[in-house]
Amino acid sequence: MVNLRRIRSSRPGISSARSARPTLSAPVVARIRTALTQRAATTSGTPAILNLEIGSPRTALDAALAAARAQGHRALGFGDTVQGEAREVARRIGAAARRIAERTPGPVCLVGAGEVTVSVRGPGRGGRCQELAWAMLPELAGIPDASFTALATDGQDFLPGVMGARVTGESLGLAAGLGLDWRALLDRNDTHTALSAIGACLPGRPTGTNVCDIYALSWGDGAVPR
Question: What confidence score (pLDDT) does residue 28 get?
Answer without folding.
Answer: 72
